[in-house]
Design goal:
Number of strands: 8
Structural class: alpha+beta
Strand order of the largest sheet: 1-2-3-4-8
Shape: elongated
Strand content: 15-25%
Largest sheet: 5 strands, mixed
Helix content: 40-55%
Distance between the termini: 53 Å
Amino acid sequence: MDRKYNLWSFIVCLILLALSFQALYASYNRTWQLAPDALTLWFLSVIVFIIGIMGFKDKSSKRARWRSWLTLLIIVPLSIAFLLGVAVNTVAREHIEATQSPDNKTTIDFYTLNGGAATSISVIGIVKGQLWIKKRIYYENRMHKVDVEWENNHIVIINNHTLNLDKGETFSN
């Protein structure tokens, strides 16, 4: 049983690492993010940490010991990064508006981001897909409000910036 703890904690650790890299890639390239929110990832990383500690009981081979150490070396910094993501999402981000397309199939949630004294307030717009899949379609610095108007089911005007959601258009300044 201890061997299964070791192996499964390592596998889930690698999955969490892949999800975090995909979330970073999606954030920088404005594509669909497949990873769940930071709180869910942090919770899973804590579970993997606990199971990884239990995996140290497996002393059947040198590879099992290396796998246990590697699991902890990956999951501890990852857990800290997810915890920082939770802090940013709960402290620095405030929901200001949600708008739906005329056919009610697309919802855009708008948030203000306040990084503190060193940064300006920004507005971010996120389209949510199935489950936890989401995409950042709008980001504007030095803005604290949002004016949204839908032209049709797929074209939206946000603060005088026209986006065609069918074509995957985004705005970022």
